[in-house]
Write a structure and sequence with these properties.
The protein starts with 16 loop residues before the first strand and ends with a strand. The longest helix is centred in the middle third of the chain and has 13 residues, at 251-263. The protein is globular. It is built from 14 helices and 25 strands. A hairpin with a 2-residue loop joins strand 4 and strand 5 (88-92). The chain is an alpha/beta fold and 444 residues long. The strands form 6 sheets. Strands 18, 19, 20, 21 and 22 form a 5-stranded mixed sheet that branches. The protein has a 4-stranded mixed sheet with strand order 23-24-1-25. Strands 2-15-17-16 form a 4-stranded mixed sheet. Bound molecules: ligand EPZ. Ligand EPZ is lined by residues 39-40, 43, 110-111, 139-144, 179, 181-184, 323-324, 346-347, 390-391, 418.
Amino acid sequence: MADARPFHWEYQAPPVQREAFRVEGGRALRGVVPVSGSKNAALKMLAAATLTGERCRLTNVPQIADVAVLVDVLRDMGIVVDHPAPNTYEVASGDVDWLFVPLEAAAKMRASFILLGPLLARFGRVIISNPGGDRIGRRPVNLHVDAMRALGAEIEYRNGYYFARSPGRLRGADVVFPTVTVMGTENALLAATLADGHTTIRPAAQEPEVDDLIAFLVSMGAEVARTAPDVIEVEGRRRLRGADHHVMADRIEAGTFVIAAAVTGGEVTLTGAPREHLGAFLDVVTDVGVEVTEEGDHLTVRPDPRGFRAVDITTAPYPGLATDLQSPTAVLLTQAQGTSHIHETIFEDRLEWMEELRRMGASVDIPDTHHAYLHGPARLHGAEVEMSDLRAGASLMLAALAAEGTSLIHGAHQVRRGYENIETKFLDLGASIEVVSEGSPVPS
Ligand code: EPZ
């Protein structure tokens, strides 16, 4: 599908101002906190909406920076994205001006790569920045590219960008991944919905956000089914229709607030909590000594008065313990009696943040990039620390809330990527948090 139109773009994301959180710790959190819509479901649904030219309406979309970045990318491509009400977005990708996902987006958000599959399937071509390059992190996207090639796409890599095209319609295929990949599964799934023929994806990720995406695609007229726990099958269609969808609750945000209640010695009720998606995590925190009572979609959390017990935890693809809840759980384990072992099996850079936790008084040994030992209970004290990424940032906030004294946490933009109104939610639970502007824009 050649396109003679000039190749230009003005992608000017608004500069993110550097901010810090000043936290007075040692206050027990009490009250009710609503769980927002899932970041990791909503981002994929915004991408899925580009599979049709008809209008799609998504509700319960979290108002977070990652959503804003993806919406900007879609709009810069000429796709209509309306925001008629809080947490509501409508997407109409009747046509596009050009198909380009810039480095600036990938630098802010790896999930921008989820546009590869749908744009390739719908429009037959896309130029998309490599979010896994050494500029940004070690997170490769080779499995996504392999899956697109299996579906008949031609993809070249030059100067940090993938140049993808599909001569004619993508073809259904047997997509076999060497390891479970959430977004790899989702990219293959999205592309397959418009491919010619039958596609099988295995081992397909089992995260609940994938099933929420499948539900949205089916409402768009896609023929998709999970035919075994780790197998997804798709019968490609020529076109999909617009649809409405209410995004599922964010299980990672919910888990983060469970830990907040426990480590501050408070009592917090989460409303709209996805209890059914928190199995492995709630098993762990219950073993440690967190009391969780449920009433419908309300979870009430309080610490066991007898204190916390050390445990060994291992992260794994769903239904195992989510790697995104590993760092919040680590904060809880700093307060547990004894030595806890954390085995992080998914990512090699998800323990580095514990150097900051050590500055707050935690007793941590990190023999290698996949193992950490926490000795507790350790008295946490306020410190000046820096957020390195989204989940580690939220975990430093948890540690600061539990610590005696004042902490200054730099890099607040990290948590704003994925936690809706996080400081307001903590303030409403009685925390003492102040946002401190640090003036200079954040380098993109
Ligand atoms: C998704 O990332 C989530 N992000 C992550 O949440 C989550 O931690 C992760 O799944 C859990 O596996 C979104 O959904 C936007 P993977 P994803 O592909 O899909 C390797 C958060 O904080 N791999 O499942 O990028 C990879 O390096 C984020 O919300 C390849 O080698 O993760 C990792 O070791 C952080 N090549 C493993 O597979 C590839 O092409 C699993 O990663 C792709 C992945």
